[in-house]
Amino acid sequence: MAMVVTQPCIGCKDKACLPVCPVECFHEDDAMVYIDPDECIDCGACVPECPTEAIFYEDNVPDQWKSFIELNAAKSAESPSAHD
Ligand code: SF4
């Protein structure tokens, strides 16, 4: 299980979520940031920091954004760390 970044993140790039992540598991591309599900420890620290309320626990991702669960895993594997 992991947290998942969803649709409202697209175009935001505020990145207020990044400094609070204890395991630095965010990745990014031109569109948004993603959480690596293999590294996220479900601490929840990033959730209240997100200005667009885009981050959900995997089990609580709204139906219309379920595709972001796989997208976060795939994009984390191919995109650079957002913490560099
Ligand atoms: Fe990082 Fe915690 Fe958010 Fe997972 S839940 S991405 S470990 S801050």
UniProtKB/TrEMBL annotation:
GO molecular function list: 4 iron, 4 sulfur cluster binding; electron transfer activity; metal ion binding
| Cofactor(s) listed in the protein's UniProt record | [4Fe-4S] cluster; [3Fe-4S] cluster
The transmembrane residues are none
| InterPro entries named among the record's database cross-references | 4Fe4S_Fe-S-bd, 4Fe4S_Fe_S_CS, 7Fe_ferredoxin, RnfB_subfamily
- Keywords for the protein's UniProt record, in alphabetical order: 4Fe-4S, Electron transport, Iron, Iron-sulfur, Metal-binding, Transport
SUPFAM superfamilies recorded for this chain?
4Fe-4S ferredoxins (SSF54862)
Residue ranges annotated for the 4Fe-4S ferredoxin-type domain, each copy included: 1-30, 31-60
Check the record and name the Pfam families matching this protein: Fer4
Known role: Ferredoxins are iron-sulfur proteins that transfer electrons in a wide variety of metabolic reactions.
Q: What is this protein called?
A: Ferredoxin
**Organism, per UniProt?**
Rubripirellula tenax
